[in-house]
């Protein structure tokens, strides 16, 4: 049941901007800390994930608000390629060739965004059983760094007897502009996962399967959303960037040009998402 620290470290490395690497449903199982008007603090406990005991963190890549739709990126989830990502590559190429900042803004909007999902017990709401915390990228990095440093001290955060609760503070965008923030901190003292440890196995057994929480949007609908997005963009008088119609039918470059300049861009994306409580596009 111990956490697989190597996989956590691998995840962390992959999300490090200095390391070069390469259909939404809502559900009651999903939990997000609510900042309210100001800020709120919650105590949560990561629990062993019965479908993958060594790694409770599941990563999903989303396209947000493409013609009003949020959906999983088909490149990461199912199809192996994605018309939105391909189009983003074309847009990035336009930016590098023209220097027009609007293309860069469009590219940032088009790029898939990471959300991690992990099984937790929310303190004070134990009766609701194991929930799935939808963790923004900034908070996810904080969590993984904490997991690694705890491991160095010999603490396995998901240990049912001697693991650690986390203090999660959600700060509203009214307080912390422009997107709000999530701050994550491990408790100093280890604690048992449940007051009544005799119910542990039944609690863990009722953990939702995170992979079942979301299903991909059919690829035709992804293409439709992209076409609609591109057409809208074309027709917006305030925009000085034109795009061609039926972009999803265009041939896209086989190697994404984004890779060559992805480091600078990753830094910018990181600025947007570091500590962001809610993604700006949700
Ligand atoms: Zn994509």
Beta-strand share of residues: 15-25%
User: Low-confidence stretches at least 5 residues in length (pLDDT < 50)?
Assistant: 17-26, 237-261, 273-282
The SS-based structural class is alpha+beta
**Rg calc:** 20 Å
**CATH homologous superfamily classification:** Replication Fork Single-Stranded Dna Binding Protein
Distance between the termini: 35 Å
- The tally of strands reads 8
Count of spatially separate domains: 1
Average pLDDT metric: 82
As for the CATH topology, it is Replication Fork Single-Stranded DNA Binding Protein
The largest β sheet comes out as: 8 strands, mixed
Structure ligands: zinc ion
Order of helices and strands: HEEEEHHEEHEEHHH
Give the CATH level 1 class. Alpha Beta
